[in-house]
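[step 3/7] fold_predict: job queued, chain A
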Amino acid sequence: MTEEQYIPLIHRSLTDQLSTEEMNHLQEWLAADTHHQEIYADIVEGWETANNYELLVTVNTDQAYSQFLGNIQEKNTTTTTKSHAPVRRLWPLISTVAAVGLLLIGVIWAWKATQTVTPNLVATIATAPRTLVTLPDQSVVTLNEGAKISYDPDFEQRQVQLDGEAFFEVTKNPKKPFTILTKNTATTVLGTSFNINNEATKTIVTVFTGKVSFADRAGKNGSLILTPAQRGIYQTDQQTLNKETQIELETIHWQRANITYQDQQLSRILPALEDFYGVNIELKEPGLSNCTFTGTFNRAAFKDALETLTYGMNLSYTQSDNRIILNGEGCPHAVEE
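[step 4/7] structure written:
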């Protein structure tokens, strides 16, 4: 495919209309040449600029877009007749037509965005922690508070859009990959369980079971293959994609109803309890961090959990709102790290 033939793919990627196969194809093309990435960046810039325009005329969008593609093809044919230069050199020669066409398309997209709403889109916004959503394929998504998930009701492509944090337990279907799109990343699986934390500055995917493909949607970094106890991190500002291994999965507790520890040091338990219950726990004596604990905590009963923790480890505590301070003499059989 020539460069101008990728324009429709880029257009559809900006409106979340690409299939998984098309998205992979576009990402491979972007990764193959920095010049391709420059083209993509120019189109995205035109798209964002056009969103600031107010369209005051009636536009036949299908006709305008077809005319734009026709103009590019005509310009390309004329240029090819006169020169045998490589395809990548054709881009500057069609830039005049493309610039006008892209501006027109950008305005058309902006107009469409103000005039139409995606029909029948199913969306759920979690107003409380651990909001369960069962998808049409019986995959189960646990949304953290404030997270939003949306998808087409027929779920033919097994694709969802996510804002915020969610834990996925995906029903296995080798014939239909499952894709989660965030603003900057695409995560594709066949059937597995994993956690996605989509923040403004970064997106983190942590795999519990199965195998996950994790990529930035701009296609600048290729993709990562993640397996259990591995984590992929996309940094928004740097636009980088990195992998971490040997992740302690038991530290991710927000989606669970209870958590259990066996001879675990207090230094490792407290950060998880803080996240689990939404509190801040401090140790008055640093030596307490090496005390070990065995037991189960239930999310619905923080006071009971605190009593269990302090009684079993011979500690005392003071509490002011969500701030708890633990105090004690230490543990006679504590294991030093």
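[step 5/7] annotate
The chain has three domains: 3-115, 122-249, 256-327.
The chain has eight helices and 18 strands.
exit 0
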